[in-house]
Amino acid sequence: MKQRLRAVVAAVALPLLAASVLLGIRPADAASLTRVTNFGTNPTNLNMYTYVPDRVAAQPAMLVLVHYCGGSASGIFNWNGHDYVTAADRYGYIIVLPEATRDGHCFDVSTAGALKRNGGGDSTGIMSMVAYARQRYNVDPARIVVSGFSSGAMMTNVLAAEYPDVFAAGAAFSGVPAGCFATTNGSLWNSQCSGGNLIKTAQQWGDQARSMYPGYTGRYPRMQLWHGTTDTTLSYPNFGEEIKQWTNLHGLSQTPAFTDHPQSSWTRTRYGDTGTRATVEGISVSGVGHDLPMSGMLAYAISFLGLDGNTPPPTDPPPGGGTGACRVSDTISAWNTGLTENITITNTGSTAVNAWSLVFTLPSGQTITSGWSATYTPASGQVTAKNVSYNGTLAPGDSTTIGFQANHTGNTAAPAAFTLNGAACTVA
Question: Which PANTHER family does its entry note (predicted)?
Fold first, then answer.
């Protein structure tokens, strides 16, 4: 068992660390993380950390951010989950970061206690953290969400299945369906599941999730699922099995209601609602292994989870400002002399937007060095971002996320205003 866990740690932690280096993000000050003790029932001796930004919303959202095998709260805070942290600074939500302390630092999503609501496993301790933070920070109970990578993605699925009355949404990067890793011998590893060989019907997967909270008849959380097609640690077939499970829990067809390509290597499918906060959303990333998330991905998760402010769903009119035709939100991650910015454009009008151009003015001292999902001219001053081939049409209620990397001379602020095809947008 220990050898298997060490192999998982090596397979998971190293690619994730490499991905974090590619993001070009300077680690945040680890002192901004706060260790919390005596937070409640904690049968498996998890550690609890919180991040509370300087400016907290009056009734903030809460993100439970769960690390990967071999990871830690500080590791996911400073590196792979850092875009979640910078977004918390902007939007005023709090982050709860559980930390596994067992050998291998993986979360238990395998034993009987772990796969039952209030069953005495890791999920029980995590829910004590949620209850503690929820009371202490006056959290909006309708905006408690969860996200995780690898082992944390598996726990994301489990928490959403066991506590559907608590979580509004989840975003799982490189995970497996809730219950897929179940074992009967005390082991925390299920080779059949990890290899993508545990195939069930949508009804069977749905029933397995429902068995974790018997008798529950309410709604289940919205779910966003990400997976690389060349993942050999938690094989790619698990992505399709996750979609089966969550569409079944929501009573949806497995036939997508919407398909697009936000980036050339991504295939995004939506089930149920087709806007930014779809009921179920899957993003398959071609040619990528077990090293998600990558640059730009968390911006999509932030919007899906509803963490980007108290804005209404995209189909509702925006609250004041702009023309009602578009809404823009952006997330910046800055370091020394560089930054990355991800901009999400939402069509809040009643007609489709075609062949769009987004115009904004970069703050003084910022110069774009590279970009994605749009073309940018010029590199500084008033910039025009034009669509590329795969995102040129925005249907009513639809969104697309673009982004760029830039140098700066000290000013890391976001543009103050945006216009889409000449119409002023509301800035979320």
Answer: FERULOYL ESTERASE, UNNAMED PRODUCT-RELATED
